[in-house]
Amino acid sequence: MNHHLVINAVVIMSKIYVIQDQKVMVDENLAEIYDVETKRLNEQVKRNINRLY
User: Fold this and answer.
1) Does 30 fall in a domain?
2) How far apart are CA 29 and CA 33, in angstroms?
3) Which residue has the higher pLDDT, 6 or 5?
4) Total structural domains in the chain?
5) All residues at 6 or more sequence positions from 7 whose CB lies less than 8 Å from its CB, including other chains
6) 19-37 pLDDT tens trace
7) CA–CA separation, 51 and 7 (whole Å)
8) Helix 27-34, helix 38-47: angle, nearest 10
9) What pLDDT does 5 receive?
10) Phi, psi (rounded to 5 degrees) for 44
11) Residue 51 lies in a domain
């Protein structure tokens, strides 16, 4: 990434939802924060899923 994007905490918090007492974020919003394509974010999640547990 050649540029840095400063994201306001209020903007991030507005993209977090609580579903059944779990905080979740839609992949599209998370990809936007990290400045990557949603497809690439999902690929990396699948590739690294075992590191979560």
Assistant:
1) yes
2) 6
3) 6
4) 1
5) 33
6) 999 999 999 999 998 899 9
7) 26
8) 100
9) 57
10) -70, -35
11) yes
Residue carrying the six token digits 């599209």: 28
Q: How far apart (Å, rounded) are the C-alpha atoms in residues 4 and 37?
A: 16
Rounded to whole angstroms, how far apart are CA atoms 11 and 52? Answer: 25
Instruction: Please indicate, yes or no, if residue 19 is contained in any of the structural domains.
Output: no
pLDDT confidence of residue 49? 86
3-state secondary structure the chain: CCCCCCCCHHHHHHCEEEECCEEEECHHHHHHHHCCCHHHHHHHHHHCHHHHC
Where in the sequence is the domain holding 46, given as residue range(s)?
26-53
> Does residue 46 lie within any of the structural domains?
yes
Q: How far is Cα 53 from Cα 43, in angstroms, rounded to an integer?
A: 18
